[in-house]
Amino acid sequence: MSGLVLKDLFCLKKVLRNYLIIIAVYFFISLAHPAMLTGLVTVMSVLLCMLSLNCFAFDQACKWDSYGGALPVTRNQTVLARYCTTLVLTAFTAVCYCLLALGMYLVGNHETALGIVLSGALCSIAGLLINAVSVPLVYQFGPERGRLVFVGLVAIIAAATAAGIMVITRNSTDADVFVMLVDALEHMNLALAAVALVLGCIAALLISYGISCAIFRKKDL
Amino acid sequence: MENCVEISGLVKRYKAFALGPVSFQLPGGAILGLIGENGAGKTTLLKSMLGICNPSEGKIKLLGTKPAAAKQDIGVVLDDCFFYTDLKPKDAGAVLCHVYRDWDNALYEAYLKKFDVPANRVIKEFSRGMRMKLSLACALAHKPKLLVLDEATAGLDPVVRDEILDDLLDFVSDEDHAILISSHITSDLEKVADYIVYLHRGTILLQGEKDRLLESYGRLACTRDALSKIDPSELVRVKKSQYTTEALVQNRSQFTRRHPGLVVEPVSLDQIMVFMERGERP
Fold first, then answer.
1. The CATH number of the domain where B186 resides is what?
2. CA distances from A162 to A168, A179, B167 (A)
3. What's the pLDDT score for residue A70?
4. Cross-strand bridge partners of residue B11
């Protein structure tokens, strides 16, 4: 299975290099305005985390699945390798933004350092959740249609959420809603919320892996 | 001698095509050539055998065990090179050494050198022939016992093809090794194959030892008048054109004894295929 992760990373080498160049340029620009670093980390975390989805397109372009099916790896291992690639990229991103945060901390910019770690962690979790939803869709529909279905799904969820909020707050003014949100955040147990978010993310990935395996096992490659 | 491949009643159904039921065996130390027209089901058969497709029915035993358990000892070359084209052969080696337990990197490099495949150039710069040679190097570098080759010699020049065929013959000199090769280049199979399975529209039309098949079948060229005097049961297929009448006959020697005035020539696999595809039943 590690061979398949390595294969994904080899395929992503060029894209990864381009991303890192963009990130480096953005980093040097941000040095003049450290507050911009939080934005950089946000973009970097989501982009790198979702990079593994590109591997499906690479596999399709060179018809890897047929060859991969003949290799001595089970279908579940093949699916697991794809999730591992995502986790490797997420870990790499985490190392990057932690180093950045450490740099900020050492130059005395503690607030920015905290902002970098928090936004990096949140965006990595968001990226993993996006993967958890989109990977089974890509296994079912292929890389192109899968992404379209994902975008459609996100649009439906966003519309439903917006409609729900509008119904709940139909008798309140904007100011009331703002006060409600601030109040909710102040009373939230942040440590518990963070643990719940991480556990939720792990659960989502496990469920996603199970669904992807079930889809991939039945496929003729 | 143990069978390296045992397939019995293999069926694979698609919406518009069905393969099988297909049954055959391949003993160790032998090469089986799979022939058939485009779309006959050769690739479907190989893919079903290897678990790339899920067969609808049938039993498959490779190297005495289930296909999944035998994959470490199977080398596969499908009809193209399936590595992402920005990768280099040395990257392919780095990937596969984590996949195959018995991967031998020195052997892989030796094959790349032998086949003139540069290890440090990206695959997208390779010709089809070079890609096939890379695939062959990948298939051989983990010292497999069974080689499954799907159109592996297609796109290669005659010299390289000849070299590869010699390598294949070397490979099966070990009684534990066997090769299953599908090819449109029947002259290659005539050179190396011990057995032939001829697929036509998803079913086996002919199968057996290659030498016996080639000895048994013959091409009769005669006038329409002479052909009309032959019992149709003695003919397998008949091809008539404005100027020529020819027929494929089985049991060539028996036929010649029965019809001493008629000339029956030996046939090639190509000719048998053309008769089967384009000829009419008598």
1. 3.40.50.300
2. 10, 18, 67
3. 92
4. B57
B82 and B121 both lie in a single domain: yes
* Pairwise CB contact (< 8 Å): A69 & B52: yes
Could you tell me the residue range of the domain that residue B55 belongs to? 3-209
CB-based contact B96:B138 (threshold 8 Å):
yes
CB B197 within 8 A of CB B272: no
B146-150 and B178-182 as β-strands: parallel, antiparallel, unpaired?
parallel
Contact A73 B99 (CB under 8 A): yes
Residue whose pair of structure tokens reads 């790339």 in the numeric block: B52
Interface test with B, best of A14, A18, A62 (most B CBs within 10 A): A62
For residues A131 and A125, give the distance between their C-alpha atoms in angstroms, rounded to a whole number.
Answer: 10
| Burial label, B139 (beta-carbon count in 10 A; 0-12, 13-18, 19+) | buried
Q: What is the pLDDT of residues A133-192, one digit of tens each?
A: 999 999 999 888 888 898 898 899 889 988 888 888 777 777 777 787 788 777 777 788
The pLDDT of residue B267 is: 92
- In the block, residue with structure tokens 């534990």: B176
Quick one: B105 and B178 in the same domain? Answer: yes
Are B84 and A11 an interchain contact pair (Cβ–Cβ within 8 Å)?
A: yes
Residue type present at position A142:
G
Radius of gyration from C-alpha coordinates of chain B: 21
